[in-house]
Amino acid sequence: MPVAPLAGKTVIDTCNYGSERDGHIPELDSKTLTSSELLQRYVPDALPVKAFHTIFFKHLLSLARPTGAADRPYLPIAGNSASAKAAVSEFIQSIGYGLVDGGPLADSWRQEPGTPVWGTPYGPFSDEEGRPVGEDAIRAALATATR
Q: What is the pLDDT of residues 78-93, one digit of tens each?
């Protein structure tokens, strides 16, 4: 993949690592890196922001709410660049979601598969409508994640 065109660009990282699907990646299996930090190694001059990977795609469509709605749902992000996180935040808010800053890429493990914020807060995949989740619940889920 040519990486030069991504230099200085914001890249939304929606990926979730799964060894059963992706094969074993030693740095991820040993938890010495997060999947987003590994992505950063492949695109060193890009500005990755982890986003959208915690919510089922059908819930993403059904749960969007306008700014000011009492039941506006929130999504977590993580990234190392303040400007990239601001751009992704603006986009997420424009499509109907509030935002919780989950910190730098090194902390993005708090929102990887199997953590409290991954999928579960929005409801099971079998419920295509899902349920909105507020800012406090997302912050709590991030805070209670363990490695």
A: 999 999 999 999 999 9
How do 74-79 and 10-13 pair as beta strands? unpaired
Half-sphere exposure of 146 (CA within 13 A, CB side): 0
pLDDT digits (tens, 9 = 90+) for 88-113: 999 999 999 999 999 999 999 999 99
DSSP 27-96: HHHTTSS-HHHHHHHHSTTSEEEE-STTS-HHHHHHS---TT-TT--EEEEEES-HHHHHHHHHHHHHTT
Amino acid at 88: V
| pTM for the model | 0.94
